Amino acid sequence: MTAAPRTLELFYDVLSPYSWLGFEVLCRYKKLWNINLQLRPSLIAAIMKDSGNQPPALLPRKAQYLQNDIRLLGQHIQVPIQLPKDFFSVILEKGSLSAMRFLTAVNLEHPKMLEKVSRELWMRVWSRDEDISEPKSILAAAEKAGMSTEQAQGLLEKISTPKVKNELRDTTNAACKYGAFGLPVTVAHLDGQTHMLFGSDRMELLAHLLGEKWMGPVPPAINAKI
Amino acid sequence: MTAAPRTLELFYDVLSPYSWLGFEVLCRYKKLWNINLQLRPSLIAAIMKDSGNQPPALLPRKAQYLQNDIRLLGQHIQVPIQLPKDFFSVILEKGSLSAMRFLTAVNLEHPKMLEKVSRELWMRVWSRAAEKAGMSTEQAQGLLEKISTPKVKNELRDTTNAACKYGAFGLPVTVAHLDGQTHMLFGSDRMELLAHLLGEKWMGPVPPAINAKI
Questions:
Q1: What was the pLDDT predicted at B131?
Q2: Strands B35-41 and A185-190
Q3: Quick check: A45 and A35 in contact, CB under 8 A?
Q4: Per-residue pLDDT band at B48 (split at 50, 70, 90)
Q5: Looking at residue B136, what is its pLDDT?
Q6: Which residues form the DSBA-like thioredoxin domain (chain B) (predicted)?
Q7: What is the pTM of this model?
Q8: What is the pLDDT of residue B210?
């Protein structure tokens, strides 16, 4: 007799490199642990504003640190992260509103595609230094993930509808209600309790809370190459 | 033929709970990995000021988060951390200058005692048993009289500046010297990555073959 899978909500934004790292680790473990992973596309800019926090990159020594940290973690976690040439412009100017609305629409209409499309958007901005703000960029990511042009175009036309805008707002507000001041946020529902964990570096602690085995960020029995 | 041990510098302040967590993990691993762990007592308040950073506890949602995070990590890492509810106001008032000068003096005169004395100070600041006792004004005064020599003050300042030169904006900071390169890692949550850089095995925060009880 197997116990019911535990629900994990992962709130993320493709603008956030640490979100990508956390996402890949959890996607690997969802096949290994008794969990039900629910992906929750959110807007990091809105979470920052709501919590009164600031992107760490605005502090010079943190900006310097992050660049090395992300590079080393990418190697260790085997995620092909490469910092964009204009790191600040990507995070602080271009943003991710259209991309996250698109992922919200995907989640509403074709939820099984959400993981792949999310990954393709990260690969654009955080691996190949490509744009994710223009419609043609988002379409390219969706197609690379396996969506037909028609499907992708249809979703793109819906991103400014109240339904999609509200859904993204509601999901982001849910993250805020859990106490988020940044992303990624993993919320584990266990034995009637809720544990909010911030960052891509709380996965070993999550394993401890779940009573599951931590086998590092690249667990065996799966092909680690993306 | 054994390779030379790799030097790790751990910059820490007893005011910093995450420093305690990182400290205990590295103390466990120094017997298991081919490393030479150098403890570097530093002043977190000065690092904050020098880097333009702020204690995370000043942001309400971070303060809320930290209390749970530290509690859960303490259980996982098996370190008896207990946060008093008014911790942040108490700590921001009392600070750690006398404690860190004291540890600096210990490091200068009795370096083999530094690990144990650091641990005892963390226990005093952070364990429930010491919550009421704290560090009394008389005790602090007595220490200050012994440790306010230029030698000790300068040593603490130099160590803290070294952390800043490595790019510190908080503590704990672990600096690994490997193959002619220097890697600065921030936080108690970079130990598995450190193992990867060292080519050593990560066995979780409570590795076997040692007694995890402090």
A1: 40
A2: unpaired
A3: no
A4: very high
A5: 54
A6: 7-198
A7: 0.94
A8: 56
Domain that holds residue A122: 6-171+179-210
As for how many domains chain A has, the answer is 1
pLDDT surpassing 50 at residue B44: yes
Cβ distance B167 to A65 less than 8 Å, yes or no, reads yes
Residue A226 within any structural domain of the chain: no
Element housing A15 (H / E): none
Q: With CB atoms and an 8 Å threshold, state whether A60 touches B52.
A: yes
Whole-number percent of chain A with pLDDT over 70: 97
Strand bridging mode B181-186 / A193-198: unpaired
Residue A22: C-alpha distances to residues A27, A78, A198, B128, B165 (Å)? 9, 12, 10, 34, 30
Which uninterrupted H or E stretch holds A188? strand A185-190
- Residues A196 and A210: beta-carbon distance below 8 Å: no
Q: Give the CATH number for residue A149.
A: 3.40.30.10
DSSP state of B59: S
Catalytic member of A16, A19, A127, A200? A16
* Residue pLDDT, tens place only, B110-130: 899 899 989 998 988 887 544
- Within-domain flag for B1: no
Cβ-defined contact of B204 to A214 (cutoff 8 Å): yes
- Classify residue B212: in a domain, yes or no: no
Residue A224 lies in a domain: no
B172 with B192: CB under 8 angstroms? no
Reply yes or no on whether A16 is catalytic.
yes
* The residue to which tokens 């976690």 are assigned: A77
Q: What gap in Å lies between CA B163 and CA B47, rounded to an integer?
A: 8
Is B206 within 8 Å of chain A by CB? no
